[in-house]
Amino acid sequence: MSRKRLTALALADALQGTEGDDLLTGTAGEDTLFGGLGHDTLLGRAGMDWLEGGAGNDTLDGNSGADRMIGGAGDDLYVVDDAADVVVEASGEGTDTVRSSLSFSLSRQYIENLTLTGIDAISGTGNALANTIIGNIAANRLVGGGGNDVLDGRGGADIMEGGTGSDTYHVDTPEDRVIEVAGEGTDTIVTGLQRYSLEGLETVERLNGTGTENGTFVGTGNALDNVLESSASHSRLYGGAGNDTLTGATGNDELSGDEGDDTLNGAAGNDRLYGGEGIDTLHGAAGDDYLDGGAGADRMKGGDGNDVYVIDHSGDVIVETRGAGTDRVIVSIDFSMSGRYVEALEMSGNADLTATGNALENEMRGNAGHNTLRGMERNDILYGGEGNDRLDGGEGNDWLYGENGNDVLYGGAGKDKLSGGAGMDLFHLDGVGDSIEDFRHGVDLIVVSAAWLGGGLEAGLEVGINGFFASGTAASGTGHGQFVFLPGTGWTHNPHLYNSPAQLIYDANGAEAGGETLVATLNYNAAVTASDLVIVA
């Protein structure tokens, strides 16, 4: 239906609208405008006008003068510019709004929304309904009343008081002040500031930082059970005391629960999550995340990406799925990776710790203490660290690095590479094809099993005295087993001839006839004598 325009001609005129969407305009006199049906616009101009919208979503603007405006059914908009203006709305007749250029109260009226206009420092007061009260660019005082209200100062140093109900405050300047009384609902502050803290505001539970497109939002909670959220590019959220829920956005966030039993949600991005005290739940989601539950038995789920978990409590739980990245744990307690889809382990601190791998290909690193590292059935890499460590590759073709300290290295099944590093190291060989990368005569020892090699060997046998060792030649037909050390060769001037490793061979029958076993290959410049060998059961 087309819009119809009706304009009063006399100084005191009455206009009646149609069933359509009408524009009724009064004069400088005292006009009476009836909108009727449709979405009508009633403009009173000067004088004490009577505006009645009728059914429909109407706009009523009395202009100057003490006007009486009755919206009727529908979502109506009232423009108030005179302290004597009267707005009349009945209950259940829509969601209505007053737009006022002076201080205004919705008290005793069935109107939900109030917007302050102009540039003056004025106030707006709500009622028992769920109000949305919006200020102007000046310093306003906004008071909500009894419902779940939304208060938005929109510039200026505003004072906002929600009253009872679960209220939402929009804070856009550091000078904005929020007033809440304890026990008056679950309240939220929404802010575009780069930094906001609920400390000192011990009656507000929730904080939502909208931030800027490329900015970082820093939000801090208080002693209550807070919900801190951010939609900024990057976030740093700190929960404080209480059982808090912190949620980042799509950027690289830092979330810290501090005290209490907290829930941290990193969302997308490479996030750093710190649970702090209490029994915390950490969700990294997508991205390469760092999850540290802190004190307490925490539950940590990294999600997709290459995640790092910090384990410091026997009750800590890691949740990882197969194929969700290459993940690492940093432990300060004894730990087993068994049953967890985590590939790497690193020990922290100085304690003497024990760690066991899992069915994946693991990389494990010790700390400054005397550690025990055990691989499992895949091809693992183990680093002992600073102390006197015990490394056991388990099954698979493993790399073992003792590093500093007097280390004990067990290759286990498979073709393993062993490097003792500094210190006096023991190399336990129990599988064909092991390689010792840095053996030092007179410092390190090679330990072999009599049960493995046979040929008359027994625990404690001194191979040099009993004729079980020969160097540089083949076995000499002793009638029993014999170790044969074959030195390696270094670089030559011929570029086609490279260094070849040394070899330690055991000939079980001492006759070079089908009884030879390659005990180990060694670094090409190694020297091995009978005194370097230890026989165990």
UniProtKB/TrEMBL annotation:
Keyword terms, alphabetized: Membrane, Repeat, Secreted, Toxin, Virulence
GO molecular function, one term: calcium ion binding
Record-linked InterPro entries: Hemolysin-typ_Ca-bd_CS, Hemolysn_Ca-bd, RTX_toxin/Mannuronan_C5-epim, RTX_toxin_determinant-A, Serralysin-like_metalloprot_C
Name assigned to this protein: Calcium-binding protein
Keyword set includes Secreted: yes
Source organism superkingdom: Bacteria
Record GO cellular component, one term: extracellular region
Region (Disordered): 242-269
Keyword Membrane: yes
Subcellular location(s) per record: Membrane; Secreted
Source species of the chain: Teichococcus aestuarii
Primary localization: membrane
